[in-house]
Amino acid sequence: MLIELTATVGENDEITLRVPSELRGQEVKVRIEPAHPAEQQPDEVPWEERPWTKEEIEELLRPNPSTLGEIARSPEFGAWADLGIEDSQAWVDEVRRQEEERRKWPRD
Q1: Rounded to whole angstroms, how far apart are CA atoms 107 and 103?
Q2: What is the pLDDT of residues 27-84, one digit of tens each?
Q3: How far is residue 16's CA from residue 98's CA, in Å, rounded to a whole number?
Q4: CA 58, 61, 62: angle at the middle one, nearest 5?
Q5: Which of 66, 75, 95, 100 would disulfide-bridge 70, Cβ 3.0–4.6 Å?
Q6: How far is residue 33's CA from residue 4's CA, in Å, rounded to a whole number?
Q7: Do the beta carbons of residue 29 and residue 23 sit within 8 Å?
């Protein structure tokens, strides 16, 4: 059971809470965290959790196409040539066929 209570820290640095009577005599865990945490500095927030800036979004949305020459010179172009794949569509079709065969239920 999880019960969330809100309290105010008094001048004497003490908190008074009224808890449900069904907790009487039970051991409980108390966790204190600010209801409204202070703003974290950007350096304290992990980069994965930082909000995107308008400039970052605009940069990502800006087209940056490659030329045919750049594509042909890229290391990815022809990366499977050493695998002996002469017809890429035939290879894909065969891989799909093998995967479908592998996933079939065995027949009795």
Answers
A1: 12
A2: 888 888 877 766 655 567 787 888 889 999 999 999 999 999 998 888 887 777 778 8
A3: 67
A4: 85
A5: 66
A6: 11
A7: no
